[in-house]
Amino acid sequence: MKTLLKKKTYSTEETLALGKTFSSELAPGSIVCLFGKLGSGKTTFIRGVCEGLGTKDLVTSPTFTLINEYRNSPPIYHFDFYRIQSESELYELGLDEYLYGEGISLIEWPEIIIKEIIGQRFEIHMKWDIESDWETERNILITQNQNNLRNTN
Ligand SMILES: Nc1ncnc2c1ncn2[C@@H]1O[C@H](COP(=O)(O)OP(=O)(O)OP(=O)(O)O)[C@@H](O)[C@H]1O
Ligand SMILES: [Mg+2]
Prior knowledge:
This protein is α/β, with parallel strands linked by helices and 153 residues long. 23% of the residues lie in helices and 30% in strands. The structure holds adenosine-5'-triphosphate and magnesium ion (MG). Magnesium ion binds next to helix 2.
């Protein structure tokens, strides 16, 4: 694991801007996993990423559909696995086709699939400290992670 950035944001706009800046790291096939509890700002960050990548499509959480696809070159796949019940749903979705294709995958609530991701990925960790005096303060950590198939045995 390699730390790329550690930063606090103090507003929705700052997180959008950070996502937009981060989008320049992405290339066809990139996978980004976003961790953080409800309301921590995962979708907000993704909105910034999508703006940076240039799609004109509306970015909304695919909580019930599992995936939203946004028109772009490369295409953008926005996943949200919060409500997933079983791994068979992932099978039906054909997740691997998306992950290992030419599009950019942005994944909220990735815990259920994180071990299955082979190769490189980015991780965005969003922390919202309820104790903080700032209701809009978020701690954001961006890392690059690697999972080699031969290490998973
Ligand atoms: N610094 C900040 N960064 C991001 N969002 C912020 C910040 N301050 C306040 N907010 C607000 O917090 C909320 C974050 O919601 P968002 O949908 O992005 O969270 P989420 O992590 O995707 O939640 P869920 O797990 O439900 O999908 C938004 O209403 C946003 O305006
Ligand atoms: Mg969300």
